[in-house]
Amino acid sequence: MTNNEAKNEHLIKIQLVGNSGVGKTSLLAVFNEKEFELNNSTTHGVEFETKEITLGEKTVIAQIWDTGGQEAYRSIPKQYYRNSHGYLFVYDITDYKSFKEIASWQEDIFEICKPKAQFLLIGNKKDMEDDREVTTEEGKNYAKENNMSFLETSAKDNLNVEKAFIQVLEQCVENNIFDVLQATNDEKDSAKSGGLVLNDDDEKNNKGRKCC
Length: 212
Hints:
The protein is α/β, with parallel strands linked by helices. The protein has a single domain (8-183), classed as P-loop containing nucleotide triphosphate hydrolases (Rossmann fold, 3-Layer(aba) Sandwich), CATH 3.40.50. The chain is built from eight helices and eight strands; from the N terminus they run H-E-H-E-E-H-E-H-H-E-H-E-H-E-E-H. It has helices at 3-7, 24-31, 78-81, 96-100, 102-112, 136-145, 161-174, 200-207; strands at 9-17, 46-55, 58-67, 86-92, 118-124, 149-152, 179-181, 194-196. Strands 1, 2, 3, 4, 5, 6, 7 and 8 form an eight-stranded mixed beta sheet that branches. The chain is globular. Mean pLDDT is 80; it is low at 1-6 and 195-212.
């Protein structure tokens, strides 16, 4: 192995997908070793964070993308979805509507995703069992029918959060779906945390758009 090859790093892009308020941003914050915030602000537009993780003998850069789940942003993220290697479809176990709308998000993703992309269905807010509207069995069945892995999580209790991200990252490695960043170019610069945030005019304009 040459010195340049030894310095190459593997980039895995993971996309969080789901309705607004299901806890996508909280899951990412907890995974990135930040504290859980009960009133986490809603994501406006597209943001991402990165984390270096060792999986077996490979060290990968996990680039986790978080998109706003509001209707105003539904037409925006497809360009960001396209180059992802894995997808976490997130619903709120206390909100049946968020579970039913996974099918709509799935349709958007399946139109443009990579052939070997990996999928994980997440039922979040497991700490709120008394308010549960979606049974564990319903989640498992949907995942099985749609060739997804399945986990229930709680960002608040840090339950299965790391497991969820690591699971889909490992699936990507096992299926050889990742990008190789060359040590001699500028690709690593693009892996830094950042994002696209819409202003009020962008949001208003987007609300007026319709699919043809």
